[in-house]
Amino acid sequence: MARALQLPAEDPLFEKHPRLAARLGAYSYTIERQGGNVMYSVSDGSSTISVPIRWAFGTGSQTFVMERDGNLYESFVSYYPVIDGLDTTMGDQRVRPASLLQAMGREVTSQEAQGCFGCHSTGGVTNHELHLDAMEPGIRCEHCHAGANDHLQAISRGKLDAVPPKLKQLSPEDLSNFCGQCHRSWETVVKGHLFGPANVRFQPYRLATSKCFDGVDARMSCVACHNPHEEI
Asked: What are 43-50's contacts with CB under 8 Å, separation 24+?
């Protein structure tokens, strides 16, 4: 989770692939390292838009966010390790760009940006406001464990106080809702009408709809099988 959000200059993807290219319909895409930047370009054959990637979301599959004229855009193409290349970003498969700007990507609303950076960074959202200059890329201890920083400072002084509460002690239902803040809970999916094949990756929702889940039995919880601290 520490690599849930990465700066392009630090992203191992661009060490392995200094240049990625794809053609989708009438548009050609190139993602290429140029000096200290990673440039995202889209062309229709006569005109080209090139903007630097500011953030890379994800560890395996990656989607990119750019900034243009003060607005944030989600890239129309993403990197997928299964094909070791670029293809349409999940959710945009039915989109048929009518302009070069639309082919570049989708403008991200302020509310969407809060959700994206709130879950993929630490300190990116405070009091329901974006603070991109102050955020730490990726998920740090404090993101899930309130008081973790105080605990670390106590350890540096040779003390073992200020220990954050253990999330494992939550009931399976409470734990599902806790993890579902970012991984989508049953309530989030139902309220947002996020139905269909895409929600196969919304683990808390899928767990909650399982016939085996009763919200009490600890054998059916997020941490029964998944270690959130495990290196992947």
From this structure: 43/100, 44/100, 44/103, 47/100, 48/100, 49/100, 49/101, 49/104
Query: Locate tokens 């809060």: which residue?
Result: 114
pLDDT tens digits for 117-141? 888 887 777 777 777 787 777 777 7
Instruction: Give CA–CA dist 222/129, Å, rounded.
Output: 29
Contact 2, 11 (CB under 8 A): no
- CA–CA distance from 130 to each of 54, 123, 127 (Å)? 15, 9, 9
| pLDDT tens digits for range 57-95 | 988 899 999 999 999 999 999 999 999 999 999 889 889
121 token code pair: 């960074």
Neighbours of 107 (CB within 10 A): 13
Listed as own residue / partner, the contacts of 18-22 with beta carbons closer than 8 Å and 24 or more positions apart are: 20/79, 20/85, 20/86, 21/86, 22/77, 22/85, 22/86, 22/87
Six token digits for residue 155: 């350890």
Model pLDDT for residues 188-212, shown as the tens digit of each residue: 888 877 777 777 778 888 888 888 8
Tokens representing 104? 């570049």
pTM score over 0.85:
no
**Phi, psi of 185, rounded to the nearest 5 degrees:** -85, 175
103 vs 24: CA distance, rounded Å:
9
Location of structure tokens 């879950």: 119
What are the pLDDT digits (tens) for 144-167? 777 666 676 777 777 776 666 777
> What are 6's strand-pairing partners?
56
